[in-house]
């Protein structure tokens, strides 16, 4: 690797950086540096929203401001419940009715007697805990405190069982942009089993390893069995692909089930879109700066109806077992690939020219903040206003014309979306697609970029090469780099060892920077790298 390039590829070390992330980062050509503000990327805990304003144009943070709105059990329920009231239980009834203590104490008190004679079970959860901490199953009013923050729900008493054990699914979801919405779903995941066989008897309410599926709880059970073969349906943790095999043997249509899960995930994100968009607009200066990895926990009942349990904004990436590495290694590869990490603008023209010559690349090498600016020209503002006007009530009024006169900001939005899509495997982009326009009615305000991408997918989803060719022509003319004067204003003041491999790819579409592709297998040496289109330079130490 050219020494000048190696020097600028700096990740900031954080105390919460998971080992699997560190491993992928180091295997991919980056350095991990302690105590630096001159960083290009970091994997950190969530920070207060104003902190995002200090992130510079070339820096990337692994959280989005305001994601707690769907990452906390109380605020998540309120967001989903608001949509349930607007659009009906049929559309948003995928979460058990929740009572937020102490605000909903009187409402819960009114319904409690109606269920007491039925010996109804309730599940009581802290609103912001993880790994099963503080969760209890109760059936008496006296069994939980009324004066502290809690979420109380009816317990799902008839879950789908496998080998007589309750289980849930951990789905991994990546949100790379809030405006426009771009949502990806990992094609694998985890099925997590309770280690004690399920019983609905009231005498078992305190048996946490029967009712809770969290690995952090069940791993201490004497019944817990590790799964040493990630292709097998054995033990108390399976891959999602193994679960599909088991369900297919039972006659379950897993393709239909996956479509139902996609629907749940999109509606879960959309429920918090308004608050997320507001926080993002107030605190993020560049569209490059942020993304979020969520962990959706979903339970299937005996009728195969999926129920959303919670959404985690920092899903566990601990990889103690080969099965975890098998699932989470490719996941992190895909997440970092899709996040489009780019060479920071820390190299002078001579250094860039030498590196491009050595790597046999052409075109710009470093991040160009113009591609990710949120500033618009007056003409672009007028077009945004035209296509988000309240007088536009029907999709046909924008889908046939919004692409007729693409402005530079339009092209920037489209090339980033196409570049993400080209390298997202094994993630699946579930929004936008040619059919996801049906979800736009659930978004509180019309978003110009959502409509732009809706029209784009309608026209080019089945002929993507034609769309990419169109964007390439714009890029060759540097049309996408035409920005307002405000986009060039001064930025905010803010930001491991020898590496054996770096993949640097020159994008077919995004002719403004060379992006880093995190492609080296992290689980098994000798595995083929993930496929990406066009040029990919592999540099080994």
UniProtKB/TrEMBL annotation:
GO terms for cellular component: microtubule. InterPro entries: TTL/TTLL_fam. GO terms for molecular function: ATP binding; ligase activity. Keywords: ATP-binding, Ligase, Microtubule, Nucleotide-binding. Pfam families: TTL (PF03133). Belongs to the tubulin--tyrosine ligase family. PANTHER family: TUBULIN MONOGLUTAMYLASE TTLL4, TUBULIN POLYGLUTAMYLASE. This is AT22192p.
